[in-house]
Specification:
The complex is a heterotetramer, with two copies of chain A and two copies of chain B.
Chain A lengths: L7 E2 L1 E9 L5 H13 L4 E6 L8 E9 L10 E6 L5 H6 L1 E10 L14 E5 L1 H8 L3 H20 L3 H12 L3 H21 L6 E2 L9 E5 H11 L4 E4 L6 H14 L11 E4 L3 H13 L4 E5 L1 H17 L3 E7 L16 H5 L9 E3 L4 H18 L2 E7 H5 L1 E5 L17 H6 L29 E3 L13 H17 L8 E3 L6 E6 L3 H13 L4 E6 L1 E2 L3 H8 L4 E5 L5 H9 L7 E5 L8 H15 L1
Parallel strand pairs in A: 1-8, 2-5, 5-6, 6-7, 10-11, 10-12, 12-13, 13-15, 14-15, 19-20, 19-22, 22-23
Antiparallel strand pairs in A: 2-4, 3-4, 9-16, 14-21, 18-20
Chain B lengths: L37 H15 L7 E5 L3 H4 L9 E4 L5 H11 L4 E7 H5 L3 H10 L3 E7 L2 E2 L5 E2 L22 H7 L4 E6 L3 H13 L3 E7 L15 H7 E3 L1 E6 L15 E4 L5 E7 L8 H13 L3 E8 L6 H5 L11 H4 L2 H9 L4
Parallel strand pairs in B: 1-2, 1-3, 3-4, 4-8, 7-8, 9-13
Antiparallel strand pairs in B: 5-6, 7-13, 10-12, 11-12
Classes of the chains: A alpha/beta, B alpha/beta.
Bound molecules: thiamine diphosphate (2 copies), iron/sulfur cluster (2 copies) and magnesium ion (MG) (2 copies).
């Protein structure tokens, strides 16, 4: 089937294959942003290697007028800038698709595919002819392909001009080079190819109230707005850009420009064990504090996570998941830490997890996480992933409600302590599971000895079974109580639905698109997206309403399914796994095929 | 600072400090350590030091790792918040606590196992950040709480209670700290209360990381013949190479000393540290000189004690980070949250 | 009800309350061993504090002619040597029971209990009168109460003489003191009390082929017999005595007495992260290696456990569990690390676990664990606990089958490599999930680069989804395949059983005793004891055979139950939790009451 | 040792060593590091060193942590088993591997992040055990692989690519190792191949832990103006305080040197280390002298290079543990298992 025979407006996908370290990010960003500015829904997925220079990298852009921004593996056009991956890239094109390559060097005829259009542009040549410095030649080659793409896809050049103006307004030389390179590509395409291609762009008005943002940036911003002041971390892909962004925002919003004083303290720890220690120390001392890391960091933090759980100290941990186990594929996405986070640390422990589905939720969940951590005096995990964290997503503009007041939970002030007979740290007078805490330095009466060793409700050391049990039983009730305060699941029901679909986090886009597609094919699904653990009662209600629920997630072992089985009353027979765990963001194709296949094989 | 602990009981004979508190007000729960354990003497020294410095107990934060030594914070300053962390992780917890509230006084108690094995990395990096705290290692050459295994500070050849000889060389926290750029380094002995208290006071006054290595014998597992961390061995091998006196800011400096025979270091808060009896040519401000002294004494089997190195010029973690004067834990939310208007403005950057 | 009205022979329990650090262990051991030598089944539970000197400690001895050796909380006699705990100790006596106390000081009349017999012996006084040195006075006071007990319980004094001879034969002074002290107590009791008490001992012949041994010692011995040569650890209660024992056995069996050379290498690591690293390094290099630790250590090891899982390196980890979370109660027992061990490390990971129920199994499972670790090239956990590990249990004599050959799994020799075209580390030619490995230094062709990062079946770095998946899918199959090689569950069925009971590890004694008791009460149970994860098929079969299965375990969250729900096909409704997690070993009372109550409330 | 790699290709121009292997036979996979990365030069040095020492490649074990530096073991000695461990954990894996097989040659490659932050504790304790291995730190002052954060070896005030100044003092692996009692300590520069190769050879010959700190600039994130780990800065500040030559056992010692101007250290295997050009008064066998030199040079902004300290008298981990000569991985099961009769005997102890 030739997908591109008919004209397709604002509904196609293309990717740029390149070598990392060659500076293609600005060219790719330019294209992506231009499409966005044309009012057309767009998303980009950056597939980069765990390496600094010289290995293959791909940037995938999907344009979809209906706003479907999940990854799609069906490409109409590929810009093949990396000779090493030509063969693979050509294979991945849809029949009838286009391959744009650098014709400075001849293409190996063995690579030709009959059902694909080859568009050669002498990009390197053009760049060499027009620029002197080797570094500039490399960079401008990229801007030149952006020019070609603009012509082929009918990108509004005024938008491009505007973007270049915004970016390089102050640096005229850069601006000139960029303009020139862009023009070289644009004009070459205009002259040599039939422009635009059958699939191309047309201005819309679908992004007026939207932004393009990655989840790590949004989450960092959320931490700033939540009033987090202490951040401790150890660099690890794909969480690093979160702390970079936090630092940038703090620089902007938290520095006294006159005195140079900072209302924040970012600590690059010596490792993850120290990072979580710092977060716990700061949370104990009364600051909102957090860390961001990825799987290996969570493993290393597990001992102290148990300490925070048992000593009841708030802490926010952002796990930007990558492909495990072990070092795994550090630049690929996965949802493989769900169980690890839920039960992190030895002994009986259970934690609160939030599962944002996109950068927007990353922003809002940040404040929510701090509120939960302080209200329940316990570690809270924001379980994000590389796809959400590092890719640019189309989101509604973020908003802030100025009436928001942080929920600091039960904290006794100096005055309250002064009036008290005696402060008992872990005594649960009103039986809601949460007890009062105090900050150091506030009042002598507030003093107590925080410990991870056995303690009774007075906070004193104990080895007596009933005293020990009283405390851990309360911890268990406290965890359960958090369900009502955590983000509720998003439920979408349809008349006539026969199956339930359950998913979480970054699967959302692909799943929603798949459900639409399935509906067209006559399979009607209800959909519930889990947004937190402990699970709200509505999760079980939803599951009970369907004899067959597909649990869609990105890991090998069906970890969300395991957690649902273990932590709700649902019969496991109702839960079917649909998994994707190769490291790429989920696409709707995978879901559609998976559900059809499982339904087919059983009907 | 308004809520200072009220003196608990009137002990007519006990000296009151400027806050009207007696030494009893600086005590904690009853010790559950073995009778005679060196750690209890260190506890007493700490109690006395804080009392003499007129520190409001509740403005102190006391932290520890895990071990017999790490239990001791319960035994002093009952009005201070305490944190008995996990094994080897106290430095990071202290770092975070300090990040949240720079205005409190931090004291960490650790053991040689807690600091030199599992916690070595965290100790080293707390030193590197020049975290403003007093860090005491109650050094007994063994893992007391787990019943007497050699620790990393056990000397080569030192005998265990069962008669085994230790086959590895010792990690000396003093030389280690010196190589890592620590700004205050001292060593003392739990049995020498006079010296210990004066060192502790200076260490508390120090702005930055103050490492105090205290040889503190474990009577139960490492006080026998053949041990090089026993009371007897330590007494016989101690040499006070630096005798120093600490003169708090508010007291008049009346100590008499011969010119040339003493050196004075002014501490960050204005108080003075007087080196009144210093081994010939000893220069507590030169890392290389101190290292030389350590190596020489080590070779001759001596244990040098005293305030061995001081550098008051180093910036502490908060100065390096330019943290605001108001503790971060006390900054109001209005100040911290940029608000909706700023967000709306910012959103334009993402288009 | 006065339990002690009628004479009870070889069926009672008593405990000695003392202060730790006062050297009561030898007195307690003497009594326990004497009973054992009289041929009477006996067990001892040492409840000691996490402290070196001065806090309360109890030693509980149970005598049971039928061989029930689980802990019982019903005491007929208490030796109250610690004034601090008098009040509590007196409360714990059965009505009609006896309290033996040191009458050197008068007993506070407020402590008196009408339904209890008080036996005062001036122990301290006697000891002070007969011995000079303070330390000896303390020690001999203990031997004196042993003498009193001997008289009260009718312990054969010839056996005592024999034991003292064996112990102090070479040290005449010690022998004399012990004899004297024992006699003082014995004669005082004979003179002042009606001896023996209504419950007492009588020689039997039930321990002829038995030994008294703790699980840590037995497991250490198993490691020696399994051929383990490298052991790395970091001290932590309650695992420390395992490595002490291993060292002792190595000293005895593995040292060349002539050259002083050692056929073992024990490394006291700087922490648990290093300990597991060393074990992995040694396993990779071809030695059988292991570590022992407890909960906090497992948390710290989790990152490297994932590395060993993914890079497929054998390692044996013994987790002698203690009460969690965090530092918890280091000297109390629990089974709280089941889930942590099963899924240790971030990403999709699953491990092999063995659950010994007693020292005997500790010994045999050691060799089994190394075989599994090498056959499946993966970490294997022996999940023991403080009760099994540190208490003396009555066990059959350990035996060794000299025909045993270690199962080293697929290891290529130099000759095999020499003949091969090319060695591919992770290529699974015969599809059984396990691939061939090589040891360093053996042959250049065997060289490969072991890594925790994404790799394909050739062992080479990859970021390609299908290559990555191929390997992790095989790991999943490999894990499942281990079920058939791991210790099979022990199943005991009864005619007319209406409920199933499932348990594991150290619960066994209490559960078996409870099942007997329940049977007497008309509740007939089938019993399955899980001995390994992954679960054998027979586990599911058993569960299916009962609509109601009680899963009995020692943790708060029902971790075995969770694992059964997640990893078998069983409907969770069939699984009911019965939990005990206060830190004391399980007693049959708890099980009987728990099952009755749950059945009652639902019938 | 019978299965020595066959020379792969005949490069007529290449020198063959005693095993008949050319330098090509010591290479590995193609590097995927950035063009110009210092680490690639270190790789070349390692290849040359092993070739010159006639080491059978498959008798080498190469290990690393995580980082750009830690990727390099793939790029040399393709016939050697390699282990790319987790971040900061290579020392423990190496310790275990060595415990299992003491007869192989161990080389670990690490980065400053891998060794001085997350891995500091393990590095320190490998030094303490005097584990017999060559441990190379490819020191560039940044976290290369995670894109340019400062590492713990970044100098105070050194500028990042984005222009931020580092606010913490550097941890210097050389002084650290000195304070921990390391038995072989050297520093070199990836751009000085001659010196590097000679140091590596001596370090491999050393019995015990040989720490070689190699300044190895990161062209992508730390080679700009303002960085103190750039090629330019390093070249300008290098001073070779010790020029040494390594003379392998089997070669005749013909090097000519003035009496008094050179010192010779005989290595464990009998080969000789000649200190031919030594800064005046430099004594590579005195910890205190070396520390003094380091401090003085540090003060004057110089980077001293060379073999800075050697002590051939230290016992290595296996000597300390008296491990049997036969690698533990090769001892037969019959030898290891005491058998049923012994067990039966033993059982009587438990009655
Ligand atoms: C992660 C972890 N590993 C091991 C332990 C067991 N442990 C408790 S205290 C201790 C050593 C204490 O030695 P040291 O710090 O010297 O203190 P001391 O008892 O000698 O004063 C160890 C290993 C633990 N609590 N946590
Ligand atoms: C536990 C863990 N934390 C963090 C990381 C991320 N990480 C990979 S390499 C690296 C730093 C490498 O720095 P360095 O050792 O100096 O090597 P370089 O790249 O500079 O050669 C970090 C933090 C990781 N892989 N594992
Ligand atoms: S065991 Fe040693 S260190 Fe611990 S309390 Fe007793 S004497 Fe002190
Ligand atoms: S990023 Fe730096 S350290 Fe890493 S390969 Fe590139 S130049 Fe080398
Ligand atoms: Mg100690
Ligand atoms: Mg580096």
């Amino acid at each position: 089937m030739d997908n591109v025979k008919v004209d397709r407006i604002n509904e196609f996908a293309f990717k740029i294959a390149n070598t990392n370290g060659t500076g293609s990010a600005s060219a790719n960003g330019l294209i992506m942003q231009a499409i966005f500015r044309m009012g057309v829904p767009v998303s980009g997925k950056n597939l980069f290697p765990s390496n600094i220079q010289g290995l293959p990298t791909w940037y995938e852009i999907r344009v979809n007028k209906d706003g479907h921004t999940a990854r799609t593996p069906a490409f109409d056009l590929i810009v093949a800038m990396n000779a090493e991956t030509y063969a693979r890239d050509i294979q991945e094109l849809q029949p009838g698709g286009y391959l744009l390559y650098d014709s400075t060097w001849p293409l190996n005829p063995a690579l030709k595919r009959e059902d694909v259009h080859f568009l050669g542009v002498p990009l390197a040549q053009m760049s060499r002819d027009s620029f002197d410095k080797p570094r500039e030649q490399i960079l401008m080659k990229n801007i030149a392909y952006a020019g070609v793409l603009a012509a082929l896809l009918d990108i509004d050049t005024k938008v491009i001009d505007q973007l270049l103006e915004e970016k390089y307004g102050a640096k005229q030389a850069m601006m000139k080079s960029n303009h020139l390179a862009f023009k070289l590509g644009y004009e070459y395409a205009q002259k040599n190819f039939k422009c635009p291609l059958p699939f191309h762009l047309k201005a819309m008005d679908a992004t007026r109230d939207a932004i393009l943002i990655d989840g790590n940036t949004a989450l960092a911003l959320g931490c700033v707005y939540a009033g987090a002041t202490v951040a401790a971390w150890y660099p690890i892909t794909p969480s690093t850009s979160l702390m970079d962004a936090f630092k940038g925002f703090c620089h902007r919003f938290r520095e006294n420009k006159e005195t140079g004083e900072n209302n924040y303290c970012i600590l690059q720890a010596e490792d993850e064990l120290a990072a979580i220690g710092m977060v716990i120390g700061a949370g104990w001392s009364g600051a909102r504090s957090f860390t961001c890391t990825s799987g290996p960091g969570i493993s290393l933090m597990s001992e102290l996570i148990g300490l925070a759980y048992y000593a009841e100290i708030p802490a926010v941990l952002v796990d930007v998941q990558r492909t495990g186990p072990s070092t795994g594929m550090p630049t690929r996405t996965q949802q493989g830490d769900i169980l690890t986070c839920a039960y992190a640390s030895h002994g009986d422990t259970k934690h609160i997890l939030l599962f944002p589905a996109n950068p927007e939720e990353c922003f809002y969940f940040a404040a929510h996480a701090f509120d939960l951590a302080e209200r329940f005096q316990t570690p809270v995990f924001i379980v994000s992933d590389l796809d959400i964290g590092m890719n640019d997503w189309l989101c509604p503009r973020l908003k802030w409600d100025d009436s928001y007041k942080p929920d600091r939970g039960r904290v006794l002030s100096a005055d309250q302590l002064e009036k008290m007979e005696k402060f008992l740290r872990y005594s649960d007078e009103d039986q809601d599971g949460v007890t009062s805490r105090t900050f150091p330095g506030v009042h002598p009466k507030g003093a107590y000895f925080t410990r991870g060793s056995g303690h009774n409700k007075f906070g004193r050391y104990t080895e007596l079974p009933h005293e020990y049990q009283e405390v851990v039983d309360r911890l268990s009730r406290k965890h359960a109580a958090a369900a009502k305060y955590a983000p509720a699941p998003i439920v979408h029901t349809e008349e006539g639905a026969t199956v339930g679909v359950v998913s979480l986090g970054g699967c959302d886009g692909g799943v929603r698109e798949a459900i639409e597609e399935l509906k067209k094919q006559g399979i009607i699904c209800d959909y519930l997206r889990v947004r937190a653990f402990p699970f709200a009662d509505s999760v079980e209600t939803f599951l009970r309403a369907h004899t067959k629920n597909f649990v869609i997630e990105q890991n090998r072992d069906g970890q969300l399914r395991t957690l649902l089985m273990a932590e709700t009353g649902i019969e496991k027979e109702r839960l079917k796994s649909l998994l994707a765990y190769g490291g790429f963001p989920l696409s709707s194709h995978h879901v559609v095929d998976g559900i059809r296949q499982q339904l087919g094989s059983q009907s | 600072m308004t809520y200072i602990a009220k003196p608990r009981l009137i002990h007519p004979g006990l000296r009151k400090n400027k806050l009207g508190l007696t030494v009893r007000d600086y005590e904690g729960a009853l010790s559950t350590l073995c009778a005679g354990c060196g750690h209890d003497s260190v506890t007493t020294g700490i109690i006395q030091a804080f009392h003499e410095l007129d520190t409001p107990p509740h403005r102190v934060v006391k932290l520890s790792g895990i071990g017999c030594s790490s239990k001791t914070p319960t035994y002093f300053l009952r009005d201070a918040h305490g944190f008995n962390a996990a094994h080897g992780r106290m430095p990071s917890i202290a770092t975070g606590a300090s990040a949240a509230n720079k205005q409190l006084t931090y004291i960490g108690i650790s053991g040689d196992g807690d600091s030199l094995s599992i916690g070595l990395g965290q100790l080293a990096h707390a030193i590197r950040r020049n975290l403003d705290m007093l860090y005491v290692i109650e050094n007994n050459g063994v893992y007391g709480l787990t019943k007497g295994q050699f620790s990393a500070s056990a000397d080569l050849g030192s005998k265990s209670k069962r008669g085994e000889a230790n086959s590895y060389g010792a990690i000396d926290p003093v030389s280690l700290a010196l190589s890592l750029g620590a700004t205050f380094i001292a060593r003392s002995f739990s049995g020498d209360k006079r010296q210990l208290v004066s060192i502790l006071k200076a260490a508390i006054a120090h702005k930055g990381f103050a490492l105090v290595d205290v040889i503190s014998p474990c009577v139960t597992f490492n006080d026998h013949e053949g041990s090089t961390k026993s009371y007897r061995y330590t007494r016989e091998h101690l040499t006070e190479i630096v005798h120093s006196d600490f003169v708090p800011l508010k007291e008049e400096i009346t100590v008499d000393y011969e010119a040339g025979g003493a050196a004075a270091v002014t501490m960050h808060d204005g108080s003075v540290l007087l080196f009144t009896k210093v081994a010939e040519g000893y220069d507590p401000s030169s890392r290389e000189a101190v290292f030389s002294y350590l190596m020489k004494h080590q070779a001759s089997g001596k244990i040098p004690t005293g305030i061995l190195y001081v550098d008051e010029s180093g910036k502490d973690m908060h100065e390096l980070n330019r943290t605001a004067e108001t503790p971060l834990s006390e900054v109001g939310f209005e100040t911290l949250c940029p608000g909706s208007a700023k967000l709306d403005e910012l959103m334009d950057d993402f288009r």
